Amino acid sequence: MNRYFSFFVLVFALILVACSQADSLISKESSSEIIQPVATAVSTTVSTITPTDTAVPTVPPEPTSTSIPTPVKPENISSAKQWAYEETFDGDPAAPSQDLLPNDLDFSITHRTHPGENFRNFDTYPADHGIDCAGPDPNASPLPHHMVNTSHFSSSTHPDPSFFICKNHMMSSMGDVEGYSVTAFWPRQEFDFSQGGTLEFDVNINDDHHRSWFEIMITPRTELKVGAAHESLPIDETYPKDRFIFEYMNNKRYIQVGSGAIDPEGIIVQDSEGDYWSGYYPNDPANSDRRIRRSMRITFEQDQITWSIEKEDGTYDDFFIAVPGGLPFTRGLVVFKTHAYTPTKDDNTDMYTFHWDNIRFTGPVIGRYESFEADDVVYLEANGDREIGENETITIDLPHIGANPVLFGQVHNPMQGQVLLSVNGRANIPVSPYDYNPGVCSSTGWKSFQLSLDPAWLQEGSNTFTWTIGSRPDCADEWQWNGFSIMGLEVQFDLVTE
Question: How much is the pTM?
Fold first, then answer.
């Protein structure tokens, strides 16, 4: 009797153990589905950008690659990376703040129009976030805004009011001021992706702001152009000879890789998506709520670039482009830009703002530099010719003399040999932009320039930069008036990386 009883007790115990293990397996599988939801792959057919409004600026790429969004498990890929640069824009002020803007970023504004005497301010326009930093809740009426103005005076020391911080992230904005404007900000540190690399940032992707769009431009520091756009657009500075362009226009991703010649030449490959984000994901709340910022991840490999956007479920949608022959360069500044092209068209009255957060990239910590800016601008133009030999002086205070000094800035309406500079009373030297208008030795509009400086020309404390109108070159167009202007002038020193 005891033997039978013992046998039944043993069998019963084995059954209990088996049931317990089965319950445990079911529980683990259910948890796995919650943590790693399966995303539905959506086929993206690459095609030429086709805007719904012919008045909206277009960029006609030639299809060169195929892009298929691939579901990615929503694991924290970023946590495993070693960031060479990272900015999280921490700060929750009671009102829109410029005091909290990071001091390792540089800022620039380029307006297409003639500067006018004293570089006047343009009309104000509404930017997202109320005066108390209330967010742009689409259900709020009126939508929380505050008014900002803009000018030609932006620098890292005194950024344009269109840049500000609220609620632990940074805004860049541009309203309808006069035609076409480009805002730009960038870390004063180069991104090295020679061994592969990843650039990440967060930004809103709402689809109700035609004629305003954002772009990431990566270019060698020696080719930095802060006001550049596609050659087909109504602004005078085109993309550098060596560039990667990541453009989010009309809610489509567009990638261009170029080398060896300025836009529209030198294009190695360019491609765009076949549909809008809202076409692929019509129920995504980020389509209409610009408080929602989506993580962007741009990955560089030897012969391919992938631009991934986080979806609502936490997975990523990939758009990639093959680069025949490999990447043409592997190190450059990362310039975050917003474009505004008469943005009040298409019944837009207040959607001028982009919201940025969590900017970071991998690689070694190299290519860092510091800059010291002039507080003033040079205006040597008029409605007609200015006299040859006229000059203006501005100053830059330098607390020390650093390594490899470079003078950077923008010049308006330069003619070859006519833009002359004297540093601290030394002999005049000519200053030229990277390029003049095609086929001539002069240029219209704003053009970026760099000039290497001899450290012996500089001194601790106040330094004078005297600009003089030189002789008119014989090759200049007859209609162009003598004179030029200078803005965004800064002295840059390399920082030694330990």
Answer: 0.84
